[in-house]
Amino acid sequence: MEHTPPPFFRRGPSLPARLAFFSLLSLVLLYADARFHYMEGMRRALAVILYPFQQLTDLPVEIGERVSEFFVTQSSLKRENERLRRENFVNGGLLQRQQALEAENGHLRALLDMRARVPRSVLTAEILYVARDPFTRQVVVDKGGSAGVQSGAPVIDDKGLVGQVHRVFPWLSEVSLITDREQTTPTEIVRNGLRAVVFGLGYDGALEVRFMPVNADIQTGDLLVTSGIDGVYPHGLPVAVVANIERNAAYPFAKITCTPASGVGSSQQVLVLSKGEPLPERPPAAEAGKRKKSKFRRPG
Question: Which of 39, 85, 106, 127 could serve as 33's disulfide partner, Cβ 3.0–4.6 Å?
């Protein structure tokens, strides 16, 4: 009678079975997270746990930057100081003019009984990381909910609009850039006030204006600024400059490409603005339809 010894290693399920099980588990977790946001709390907890390690890994770079800044020559500092003095002198004159214009604008709004614009608070932040996904244009800044950052807040730099806060953690925040495919920005042309919508293309350096008629009054070099529609962004922030326009009579809309006005792919420091005053709610669609029908009712 033959006797086979027991296997030295106990074998479990086969490799294809394990692969199928974990693949199915991954799909279920992805769907649950996208549909019910079950993993949001886990993300926040992991962000809190990993924050000290992120700071520790950035410590050598920060020390190196501080050492390099310490050895900056005195002559370069003098030149920088002189340049800042000249700019301060010029900006002082512009500031006086701006204060007079703001006072005049306030009086005109009071006379016309217009809705006043609420000033927004500003919070400085620094970009720490960029998104690993090459198909999204997002960055991570070093300010979060503990500093007062809110989801949906506008983010700008010294040249114009950079993006919008997408997700807020206790000490960090994710910002979706205006070049992201999911970002749309309501704008207007400074030259004539024509409103347009700017869409991201998924890579830095290019934006697109869609649904603009072929005969629209838009030219190469026009500056697009935020229109303030929907109360997402304050009015007047530079967004993009029209770079190329292709008009074809066979299509109803022109193909318009723009370049971002801000340093979307190069800025290191940004400003996070507070969210504006909420707008009144839209009228219900049913009531709007009834008013429209009653307006065009024929007399009996």
Answer: 39
pLDDT digits (tens, 9 = 90+) for 247-287: 988 889 999 999 999 988 888 899 999 887 777 777 776 55
Tokens of residue 215, six digits: 């005969």
Confidence check: pLDDT of 165 > 60: yes
Tokens of 232: 């997402």
Contact 210, 257 (CB under 8 A): no
Contact 220, 179 (CB under 8 A): no
88/159 same-domain check? no
* Angstrom distance (rounded) from CA 236 to CA 98: 14
- Taking CA 274 as the corner, what is the angle to CA 155 and CA 207, rounded to the nearest 5 degrees? 25
Residue 2 is assigned to a structural domain of this protein: no
pTM here is 0.61
- Per residue in 167-178, pLDDT (tens digit) is 999 999 999 999
Domain boundary among 71, 99, 131: 71
Residue-range definition of the domain harbouring residue 104: 78-113
The CATH number of residue 254's host domain is 2.40.10.340
Task: Tally the domains of the chain.
Answer: 3
Span 28-41, pLDDT tens digits = 888 877 777 777 77
Q: CA 244 to CA 292: how far, in whole Å?
A: 40
